[in-house]
Records
---
Amino acid sequence: MEGSLIRELDDFRKKLANEREVPSKILDVLEALPKSTHPIDALKVGVAALGSFDPDLPGIWGQHIHKKKEANLRIAIRILSKMPTIVAYFHRIREGKDIVHPRKDLTHAANFLYMMWEREPKNIEAKLMDLALILHADHGLNASTFACLVTASTLSDLYSAVVTGISTLKGPLHGGANEQALKMLMEIGSPDAVREYIKQKLERKERITGFGHRVYKAYDPRARILKKYARMLAKETGQEDLFNTAVEVERVMIEILGTKGVFPNVDFYSGQVYYMLGMPMDIFTPIFAISRASGWIGHVLEYWEDNVLIRPRALYIGPTGERYVSLDKR
Ligand code: ACO
């Protein structure tokens, strides 16, 4: 890498590391939530609340917010850096454990695991988390990124755009699929039960989570990479049954729906990797959000360089020429 790029990366890493802690009042907000709150909702609340504490926001909010590049970059760093802290803090609060403050000497991925687990991750654990964060960082105009752009295009702020992104990612047709896919594998239980399970689900016209993609009509390349690590972790953690069940689901699904372009997507194997790393299932989608926030913010900052309000029109196809009937005559 060129010297200037190395310096830029180093500077970026330092800035991220310096912004990891959240204001103490954010802890009060997280503590006020019911412990049953899904962590993706806690993240949404945490990021929304964080906006109120940002020193740059009051000064730039308004008509020209999209032109305040320097302030928006500082805000971007704060959001990216503090999102893992919010997820880890809420997780420990709901478990009744003391929070673990972030450390500046660890990488973005290693620090997140450290705050979750209260121990430094092994090199391989940190590498795998890093890999997962890289694979999920950006993916064009997926539903959540598009939703962020809609919010940002009104000249709302970055915090609001990211809250929109988290809310949109949450759904099981998008980032929520990683949690649902693992639940499905557990429900199936063993490779022998796969064919009947899939058959019945498809007969009921239900979707198989972790398969299909609006853009990829072939094997999602991210899934291919994650599958390799899921296999490795399965061996190490004695979860071969889970992995073999997944491989059988993949085989049966491709046999039945491959001709329609339905293949495993990123969410099918990512959940297995997180699970075998020891993550609770409901933390999978927040991990996706921690990573994808970089894509959301990158797209918003680029869009703001030449901002146009996103406002589609709908084509009405119902009856026309209807007459108003007063309430007492209906
Ligand atoms: N299970 C069963 N059948 C499926 C699936 C699936 N997961 N995905 C697509 N199909 C079928 C559809 O029923 C359709 O069949 P038809 O032509 O007989 O009606 C055909 O494949 C084409 O599907 P579309 O609906 O056109 O695909 P679309 O692009 O609209 O949907 C989507 C993409 C929403 C992701 C879909 O594949 C799905 O629901 N997948 C399951 C949820 C999931 O895993 N989401 C995560 C996606 S990755 C991500 O967001 C990070």
---
Amino acid sequence: MAKRGPTYHCQACGAVYHRWQGKCDACGTWSSLVEDAATAPVPGGGRASGNSRVRGRVFALETLKGDTQDAPRITSGIGELDRVTGGGFVPGSVLLIGGDPGIGKSTLLMQACAALALAGQRVVYVSGEESTGQVRLRAERMGLAEAPVDLAAETNVEDIVATLSEGRRPALVVIDSIQTMWSGEVESAPGTVTQVRGSAQALIRYAKTSGVCLILVGHVTKDGQIAGPRVVEHMVDAVLSFEGEGAHSFRILRGQKNRFGPTDEIGVFEMTGKGLSEVTNPSALFLAGRDQPAPGAAVFAGIEGTRPVLVEIQALVAPTALGTPRRAVVGWENSRLAMVLAVLETHGGLRLGQHDVYLNVAGGLRVNEPAADIAVAAALVSSLTGAILPQEAVYFGEVALSGSVRPVSVTAARLREAAKLGFEAAMMPAGGNDHGDGGGLNLRRFGHVTELVADIAARAPRRDVKSRGPKGDAED
Ligand code: TYD
Ligand code: MG
């Protein structure tokens, strides 16, 4: 039973408390509880108890067997976006797009809206953050001012739903952003979790009953959580995140949850002066800024979803000045790096206890594949020994705790992509045989990390081998 009296909501995760406390037990956030007097939602429902507007309605039950109209998906024509949604938007579905402020969510959605509107669909873009003038200005800058998109700057969900229910039913409605919306049915300040949840519920109800595809924009907090709307995440059909590094111009759209499509696909875009442009060949982009040959860089032939992506892995192994050496990773898992380091120490004979280790996946891509183990190991050994890795080679393969190099999936596609981009050799696992014709590459196979370490150490400059080699002490 919901208790009367003041309740407190965590603004980060939505957990409910009956007493104020400094830290939310559910998500660990400090000072995030806000009093929300007498508006505690009934579990499973959205409205406060005692709300006289709630009236039961008798509905007909159905069976599993029956009509399943497979409504056609609404394709935006932006290939990278359609790929991530699983082949277009599904009518009646709700999609949440999260991302840091300024990453380009509004830009991407305006482009999708414009493309659909130009294709003759009715599209409504509701901005709660910018005035219609500002949205128009942006559209003009992107050369989309002619697109017949219906535009509004509104924040009240009842008004929005009432307006949307008039006239021709839209194919797509964009709400930018869910954090700015408020519902008159929820007695809580705009921006609070209760309001976000209440507004989302009203909008989702509208989408489900009308068959309109709804896109909600959600801003993300520093730690990668969709602020407040974490409570929205489980109410929607798909969650996409739009990521990118401030310093780089490209952006990655990644599926996190999708009831109607894959979750491992990525869409790659580049932010230009005229909005986002699709990057159909991400490998070329990620490798574009490669420096002069230097130790510590290895090209990894990876797979993102169904697509091969080549990316440079950079490592820096430097003598430490600290008691506990640093391990810093960008774009890969910390625990995975710890494992590769342990394997290199145990089986490869490297001494890394007195070295700081920095690892970076170039360009801001996040790699999740274990197949990157070998590329990481190669970059680490290369940095430690000062040996420059062959520029024309790609690396991939999983490392087991025993030090053996294990075959990985979709080898043929990795090799083809590498060949397409002008690489001539692949450093890959022994065993496994789905590599087709090898793409014409020179295949160099490793069964154990010791072979890889020996191969790289053999390329090291002689002086360096002595002072910084795998078994040497680091004095410099
Ligand atoms: P925006 O879509 O407003 O981000 P979000 O909605 O995620 O907060 O994007 C804003 C950024 O994009 C801003 O820094 C300017 C940049 N931008 C361009 O570089 N080119 C463009 O054509 C547009 C429209 C924006
Ligand atoms: Mg925006």
